[in-house]
Amino acid sequence: MSSGDTHEFISKVELPFVMIFLYLINASIMTMILCFVLWVVHALYVTPDDDTESKSSHRLGLIGKITVFLFHHRGIWHSWIAWTVLFVIEYHYVGLAVLGGATSVYSHLMMDFTGTWIERKKTKIKRAMWR
Ligand SMILES: [Zn+2]
Question: What pTM did the predictor assign?
Answer without folding.
Answer: 0.86
